[in-house]
Amino acid sequence: MAKSGAKRTKLSKKDYEARIPALREQLIQLQVSLKSAPFPVLLVVAGVEGSGKGVVINLLNGWLDPRGVEVFAFHPPTDEERERPPMWRYWRSLPPRGRLGIYVGSWYTEALREASVPRARREKFRHALSRIEHFERLLVADGALVVKVWLHLSKTDQGVRLKKLESSARTAWRVTADDWRSHRDYKRLDELGRTLRQATSRTGARWRVINAADERARNVAVADTLLSAFLAHHQTLAKRLAPGRRLATTPLRPEGLRRLAELPLDKRITSSAYEAKRDKWLGRLNEMIRRAAAKHRSVVFVFEGWDAAGKGGAIRRLTSAIDARDCRVIPVAKPTDEEKAHHYLWRFWRHVPRAGMVTIYDRSWYGRVLVERLEGFAREAEWRRAYAELNDFETQLEEHGIIVVKFWLHISKAEQLRRFRHREETEYKRHKINAEDWRNRRKWHQYEIAVGDMLTLTREVPWHLVAAEDKRHARLQVLKLSCRQIEAALAQG
Amino acid sequence: MAKSGAKRTKLSKKDYEARIPALREQLIQLQVSLKSAPFPVLLVVAGVEGSGKGVVINLLNGWLDPRGVEVFAFHPPTDEERERPPMWRYWRSLPPRGRLGIYVGSWYTEALREASVPRARREKFRHALSRIEHFERLLVADGALVVKVWLHLSKTDQGVRLKKLESSARTAWRVTADDWRSHRDYKRLDELGRTLRQATSRTGARWRVINAADERARNVAVADTLLSAFLAHHQTLAKRLAPGRRLATTPLRPEGLRRLAELPLDKRITSSAYEAKRDKWLGRLNEMIRRAAAKHRSVVFVFEGWDAAGKGGAIRRLTSAIDARDCRVIPVAKPTDEEKAHHYLWRFWRHVPRAGMVTIYDRSWYGRVLVERLEGFAREAEWRRAYAELNDFETQLEEHGIIVVKFWLHISKAEQLRRFRHREETEYKRHKINAEDWRNRRKWHQYEIAVGDMLTLTREVPWHLVAAEDKRHARLQVLKLSCRQIEAALAQG
Fold this sequence. Notes:
493 residues; alpha/beta; 2 domains; 54% helix; 5-stranded parallel β-sheet; Rossmann fold; homodimer
């Protein structure tokens, strides 16, 4: 475990200058190898006030080729950021594969801010740490290299450093009243730092504590840490990414398949009964959405279902009840190349709505455990851990007050065939069907297994399973279930 | 020209219902053709209060397949938006080619807000309109279809409409005190609307005024306008985009080439003289940047120059004077596929910095009139009009208070050869040279012509022409010229 009492080493000016050229060359080599590496590097530089986080980062930035690096410092959240879950701002900063992001303080700065107020907030701090731990675990699992250094100073060394900075006209502006406040509060902050490191040191994202009393030794230690972590990672990752994918043709959990099989598909509703009820529910949904918006709560709809199950039609009915100005439909197709260069969840984080908005996903992040599982686009280890990641993603949305409504539209294999044929025969529907739809259909049973697992393993936010054999019935169900869920969510808080 | 007194037509319920199915089918067909069309469609729905802009858009949204449409309504600017030039928020909303964006009020809403205060602000309103006119002209020139409808109501009809809305419990919430205020202010607002339409009606982005007194006639007219504009555009564009590119091997303006030829390249500076001066200028630059940040002014550096002219080295010296936390280096390489699907300036608008930040472009938007001109990636008409577009882009940055510092680093053809060879011979520099560099070198003279034209035709924000034959001399020049320009800009206001 990372101890605060990191060794206090000294480095003479002569030794320092002798080491620099080689260090710089290694850093450039790192960047050259990184360019074609299948992972991003995140360097987090955190630590006590006066330890020189900014100086170290400026130095590294000068040593590196600035074209491959980006430095991120987080100022107090903007209003656009406050309207999203706390991790949104960090997601949007993530470097793509092959690039290096250097983080000053990073997500830890905000977590420490949570802890600045006594007792009552301890719970919040703990929660922020566990959120961070999840975040880093997810990045690491995806292959990212996360290097975290904590720059440490003893209380005495910190006092000496702050005084020294104040004594020179060139650096005096760096020392603020906050710095002296944190110096007086040293003991408590030191303990917080220790708690923080303890809670977030995990394989692949360990803290390295570096004593910053000697500036030269500190600089070299940070660069060394980055270099050796990179080399080690580059080697092990090559092994870990070796192929070995295997389509899972057996369910992880049998319950899901059973649930699908037991869903009665014979419910029908006449056209006139449908129209009478539809308007009632559309009106009610409109009211619910407006009530949610008044409370600054967003609603996210997720539509999954068989090809031709009627997702488009159901979405169209839904949007007719919502003011188009506050609503966005996001069809999820193949990722763009920018999206492909990031974690698979990045493209969904990008579109997390502002407060009070409605976002409708026509297909969604569940592609990870459906098409990507079945087509082998995701390795087995990847789609297996995705269930937990998707649960966690949706939990973060919900914790922020976003109401997440999820549908699986279910039809029989025979009904799909009828609809495919109908599409092929109808002029203005022909664009809706292609060879891929027929290909997917041949894998019906494998898909059934994947759907069953999905329904069973991602229900922290529950799924609505909708019988869609009859379109009118399905559309009405979607409206009703949406109303009820939103109403219940609003009643709770 | 668009007159307010658009014809007041009536449509019976029966006739209306008879027309809907065909309209809807045509709209879906529009979307199917649009999918593979090489342009985006922007539908702007503006007009007087109570004319039903929201209703029309909701209706259209229901008729269209929601998967290919996005609706944009602009609420008061967020702080992230206020920190950028006014058009930034609109740029970031632009649909890519093949998609339809529907704008409620759009950029016109904000412009009308500028006009809400008397005399003193008239100038601001005029300016906002000319900015919009430029914006739309640029989109249209790029092939976008911009359809603008203005929903008109006479004062009497407006009063009737507002009362009718108020009388029903279902719609009463739509009528606000603001609506009645604008009703009392009808005459002035009507004139403003006329001024606005007059100033922004141009080929390719004409206003169509639609009388909204009869709701059914209004709905059909909006859909019809969109459909017929689309059909006409789809046909003419196919012709306009026909090939016919031609490399311009003669300069548009001879002065530029002369300016390049006359630049003395023999200035040298010794290593010791350089080091002595460098630190002075680095310190001064650091101070300037901090003074700019204190005034919430961003600085944007643009580095252009021959391959191997030393852009990377100059940038590295520059960044060493800037706090890495406030600085971002953006290397401009090939656009991503998302970027390719938008106007060529979109990717640069994306990265416009927040207030008080420094952004350094390593190559830039000038690729449009350099590599894209020479390689034929841009058609002749495209790169020819780019000079004005680039001037306009930079003017918008400057008007917002951003300081734009532009460099062309110049070396001789012989010096480039020496540097290329040196790169090939030096282990850790080899990654910096490839076949493309050699290919570009063979087109030296054509590039000279393009550079000369660029220097001559894009100097609304002036260029710094830097002799870079001696690297130390060039780096010092970059520091000095940056300091002086920032200092002068801060002195002005």
